[in-house]
Amino acid sequence: MARRHRYTHQRYLEGQDEHHLRQLTLIRDLQDAVSNGELWMAYQPKVNAMTGRVNQCEALMRWRHPSLGFIPPDEFIGLAERSGSIRMLSQWMLANVCAQLHAWKQQGYHLSVAVNLSASDVVDRQLSVHLTSLFERYQLNPAQLSIEVTESAVMHDVDAAMSTLLELNQLGLSIAIDDYGTGYSSLAQIKRLPVSELKIDKSFVLAIDSQKDDLTIVRSTIEMGHSLGLRLVAEGVENRASAELLSKLGCDFLQGYWIAKPMPADELPGWLDNFTPL
Ligand code: C2E
Ligand code: CA
Ligand code: CA
Ligand code: CA
């Protein structure tokens, strides 16, 4: 018994070591991921529930590590935040997305893109200056870009975040609260920010067609959000029943695997050409 215990404990420690080693490797290699061309952006369409059409996508970062393969953003974004490389990744991401918007426009696709920002991005005093120069370089209307940010990223340093968000909003960007419902802030607190959209977290949406409680939460979130003048987006829409239910509840935008998975930029025009409005 004692021996077996020692054995499993040993295995546990080895597992911890492996995990730790992987994290250190990823943190180190993230530094060169941009210059080595290992990152790219995937785009996931958002459907306007009123018109059934798509004119917006969310940009999601992808990393293929040369030896470890595909690393999910849920793993590397957190590491980048803690190791200080997130700003470099965000700068690359914003330039890449703006260049893409410019390229799509030249191909005749007039889209807008939502990007995800981290806590350290929303306290970056240079962000709106940086974006302004990107909009000039790529001849974009700032309204073509919108920002998704979680409550926790904003509440981390609410005064600094507030001034950045106000600047972005004055530039013409709209701002959404991501993963809404998983944090602790009230809608009253959120309403003080220059926010126009709430994205209901997918944990409430995934089983909305079978879980009564989830349906109740989503319904009241939509009602409350609308009464405060906010647009509502549901992410994690995985089947037709959920999409129909959400449209009936008055949800403004739908996003999820049932509509499309995130895809490389060059696949989006073909996808849009073949998409039949809902
Ligand atoms: P998020 O912003 O909440 O993005 C939604 C996630 O849900 C994405 O995962 C997306 O692929 C996934 N998803 C979309 N539809 C469905 C569905 O129908 N079912 C299910 N089960 N999942 C769905 P992904 O791409 O792995 O990204 C994970 C998280 O990583 C994002 O969550 C975001 O917090 C972060 N992230 C991704 N790209 C960036 C970025 O460029 N910058 C920052 N700061 N964070 C990013
Ligand atoms: Ca998001
Ligand atoms: Ca989300
Ligand atoms: Ca998330």
From TrEMBL:
Domain EAL: 23-276
Segments forming a coiled coil: none
Parent-record interval covered: 495 to 772 of 789
Name of the protein in question: GGDEF domain-containing protein
Domain of life: Bacteria
